[in-house]
Design a protein that fits this description.
Length: 71
């Protein structure tokens, strides 16, 4: 067993109903010694189709320019 999280379900109460959103993690790759999912699928009753996000690049603890946080 890898002990990697491959699925997660979050539930919220809205207007007297329970809505559950499911996240599925896949395509795990090592990035600077940290194993991360490069694909996340989201199934939600708020969306008519599942949303799939695929990372093309992930950086761990990469430097960030201070200007990014200017308001």
């Amino acid at each position: 067993a890898t002990l990697l999280k491959v699925k997660e379900t979050q539930s919220i109460e809205a207007e007297g109903q329970t809505l559950s959103t499911t996240y599925e993690y896949d395509d795990f790759k090592s990035v600077d010694g940290v194993t991360l999912p490069h694909t996340v699928s989201i199934n939600s009753p708020m969306s008519p189709v599942p949303m799939v996000m695929k990372a093309t690049s992930i950086k761990v603890n990469a430097p960030v320019e201070g200007d990014l946080f200017k308001m």
